[in-house]
Amino acid sequence: MRRSKWKIAQYSKEKAAMAAERFELDPLAALLTVSRGVDTPEAIEEFFSSDIILSDPFLYADMEKAVDRINLAIDNFERIAVYGDYDADGVTATALLYSYLQARGADVICYIPDREEDGYGLNTEAIKELYDKEVKLIVTVDNGVSALEEAEYISKLGMDLVVTDHHQPGEYLPKAVAVVDPHREDCQGECKCLAGVGVAFKLATALEDEGPEALIDEYADIVALGTVADVVPLTGENRMIVKYGLKMINASPRPGIAALLNAAGCGGKAVDSTTIAFALAPRINAAGRMGSAGRALSLLLSEDEELGEEIAGEISLANEERQKTEQNILSEALSIIEKSPSKKYSKVIVVNGENWHCGVIGIVAARITRQYGKPCFVISVDSHTGEAKGSGRSIEGFSLYDALADCSELFTKFGGHTLAAGLSMSRENIDEFERRINAYAASFSNIFPTLVLSCRLNPSYITPSILPVIESIEPFGAENPKPVFGLFKMTVDRVEGMGGGKHLRLTAHRGNGSVTAVKFGVSPEEFGFIPGDVIDLAVTVEGNIYKGEKRVSVRLAEARPSDEDEEEFFSSVELHEKWQRGEILNDDEKERACPVRNDIAAVFKCVIANSGWRLPVEFLSWRLKRYSLDYCKTAVALEVLCEMGILKRNGSFIEIHDPSTKVDLANSEILKSLKRGEANG
Asked: Is 351 exposed, middle or buried (0-12, 13-18, 19+ CB in 10 A)?
């Protein structure tokens, strides 16, 4: 996994001290709050308040028009169709508005498009189907703001349209009675970062017309589920509603949610935003990815416990199928990437395959982005039509939407946000797309993921007393993340395996303070650090119930050498990748990249001493720091030793091949081309 750049959150010590004194907060709670931008007395008071105070829904543009038209349809018993989306946000938004209108006595049906057959948003075939069912009014949730042609078609058929959405509108709004979207330039609504279900909730409260909080006891759990699933900022009203919704779920979950919790193995356990994000939301999304999102909708609407358990079981099976499909595509994609250095070391990874399941390529792109620390597009090509559909994920600092807009003429359709985007194009354009998006990315230097630390922390502070502090700033999510603490200059005491060696338990100390942290999915051999090493740790802290006692559980996020110059390290990595990409090096870069005989000898001796090398190159260069070898020279030295037949690669393992071979480094084509500044390979 590619290393992250560490960044400590900035905050005002004076504001943190003010917050601690004025609101009688623990100093760490005040620091954590201020460091995430909650730094005015009003904002701090709201952040820690248990009251639910929501803004007026009628501040949102066109809300009054939407309410008037829907009320007219209810009064005249016109058939209304709630038109949703197949992801968790769209499903929860559909469930909320459909159940509300049904409770109001409306003649209401709902429609969620099929991911494979219909695609995202409104489509003409579905509209015609609703027309044939005598629908007079279509109300969209979590879609519709970009459906210009479909809106015209609805109008031609004599139906009316009300759009509720939370995606960015284009230059023109669709032809509709009302378009309620917090991102409209003329929208005065206070909360701009609502999920689709949040906008649907605002519409329902406006229809109820008894105050913004009137329906909180009815739907906060549904809103919480969709809001967390859609990864919108958990700040302001979003945080209030999610916090209240979690209380509802923990106190008395509705049958469908209770059934889903049981199916996920979370029944009877405390539910937090992490439970939603990693247990509930993936299952709801899996229904839309692998089968029919309608089953997930039926689950949320169900009042029958037995039926709920049955549907939850089906959805869990769909999730298992999704995981298998995802893993198969991921394995194939990784194989393609690893066999192509130009692809592996590119600034934006583009990988494509035949007939990959379009429902999971976005998840695969996210996993590749996490593994390589780079923006990635995964593209599925229909072997019959040649149509290519792609999904991309990015890291902070590189906007996928802007990158796609730069080569938009290659696509039949594209859209998305800064960190996630989708596209459609012809198979013939894939190679040109890969070239163009990497040409665009070339102007961005050092595109690396960033790990933001909430603050430095003395290890002696990690005791059960820290748990109430952390709990006070929950629920966690986008823009209100779980605190990550930096423990610096820690000496490693023990590195042990857990779970048959698949996981890691690390014990380290500084002064009189000691900490034990766990890292899942990483073995002791993969960790790279050994007892005696002095390293920095990035950790999260949570409570863990053991034999009825609440204990502190420390999770290791990342580790790095304490004495490393981070800027120098990342500069060296970037230089090596530039060479691997086949770019020409200037004179200074040639000198920085090219190892001399003594450098290569030092790398050889270290590999021999370790009976080969199984870890990433960065650990080898760190072990060789006394020789002033950086990442790039170490990596190039390994390439030369393999080229000369002394070492050889076996997957990610560097094996000793023929250490007694006498070689003349003057014959190395790698070194000769590098000295000329030419591209690798």
From this structure: buried
Residue at token pair 């931008």: 37
User: Distance between CA atoms of 334 and 1, rounded to whole angstroms?
Assistant: 13
Q: Which of 232, 302, 213 is nearest to 273 (CA)?
A: 232
- Specify the 3-state DSSP secondary structure of 218: helix
- Separation CA 520–CA 508 (nearest Å): 17
Q: How many Cβ atoms from other residues are within 10 Å of residue 401's Cβ?
A: 18
Q: From residue 57, how far is each of 89, 192, 205, 214, 471 by CA, in Å?
A: 19, 12, 7, 11, 30
- 643: CB partners within 8 A, 6+ apart: 668, 669, 670
Which 8-state DSSP code applies to residue 277?
A: I
- Cβ-Cβ contacts under 8 Å for 386 (sequence gap 6 or more): 426, 427, 428
- Is 242:295 a contact under the CB 8 Å cutoff? no
Q: Which residues contact 499 (CB under 8 A, 6 or more apart)?
A: none
**Which pLDDT tens digit goes with each residue over 278-326?**
999 999 998 888 877 889 999 999 999 999 999 999 999 999 999 999 9
Q: Where are the beta strands (DSSP E) in 547-611?
A: 549-561
Q: For the chain, which ranges sit under pLDDT 50?
A: none
Helix-then-strand count for the chain, H and E? 27, 20
Distances (CA, A) of 218 to 95, 205, 271, 564: 12, 11, 18, 54
> pTM here?
0.89
Q: Which of 576, 634, 625, 644 is nearest to 603 (CA)?
A: 634
* Cα distance between the two ends of the chain: 24
Dist. CA 8–CA 487, nearest whole Å: 12
How far CA 292 is from CA of 114, 299, 306, in Å, comes to: 7, 12, 20
Q: How far is it, in rounded angstroms, from Cα 378 to Cα 422?
A: 10
pLDDT of residue 679: 61
In angstroms, the Cα distances linking 505 to 496, 523, 616 are 5, 9, 20
Q: Tell me the pLDDT tens digit for each residue of 433-489.
A: 999 999 999 988 778 999 999 999 999 999 999 999 999 999 999 999 999 999 999
Longest dimension (CA), the chain: 93
Under DSSP, the state recorded for 594 is: -
Rounded CA-CA distance 545/628 in Å is 47
Structure tokens at 227: 């809001």
Residue 209, judged by CB atoms within 10 A of its CB (0-12, 13-18, 19+), counts as exposed
Backbone angles phi and psi of 248, in degrees to 5: -60, -45
